[in-house]
Design brief:
Blueprint lengths: L7 H34 L1
Length: 42
């Protein structure tokens, strides 16, 4: 289901990019926010 902003695949790619770039800095916070976004998009 398209949320009108990003497709599920794009969200997964964005999540992977964020996690690879930010893991040592804000990984846990970003992951929580992104997981909420992914759940809301489903």
């Amino acid at each position: 289901m398209d949320n009108g902003i990003l497709s599920a695949g794009e969200l997964r790619q964005l999540h992977q990019f964020i996690m690879s770039r930010s893991a040592r800095f804000a990984g846990p916070v970003i992951m929580r926010l992104t997981d909420q976004h992914l759940q809301a998009a489903l």
